[in-house]
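worker-3 :: picked MCUR1 regulator
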Amino acid sequence: RRLYFDTHALVCLLEENGFTTQQSEVIVSVLVKIMNTNVDMIYKDMVTKVQQEIALQQVMSHIGGVKKDMIILEKSEFSALRSENEKIKLELQQIKKQVTDEITKVRADNKLNLNLEKSRVKELVSLVTSRNISTLGDLQIWHAQQDRALTQTDRKIDTEVADLKTMLESHKLDNIKYLAGSVFTCLTVALGFYRLWI
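worker-3 :: tokens ->
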């Protein structure tokens, strides 16, 4: 073992300070043993450069395996989310088509009802005219009633159309919320993988 101090000089220094030669040599040999023991204990906790490189290679291969697993998992998660988004788009298109069909049906029914009301009003007008209504006040009252009936019919049509529009908007909002939730879930998963990777 290499010693980092001069043992002979230490023996001479001890002899100059009143120790005998034998005592000085014993003290120096004890110091050398203590130093060797300390160095051995330090060497037990240390690794060689070759061992360090082997451990580094093992860690790097483990990190490479984890990266591959993360890439595979990320691809599978994103493909699942894409398929879910495609399903949601198809469902949205179906719902939109159904709502459009319902609106068209309601409009057609309302137009038919309106036409029936108009024809009924015309028949009533012709009937009233044929009976020769004597007073103008009765005619005005009758017109007011017919206007009220038409106004109520128009209000019914408007309320039904408004209800359908609100239903469509609520479906749109629900689907947008679901899509936003899916996107945030994807981002959370990606950030989690990114954080684990780093």
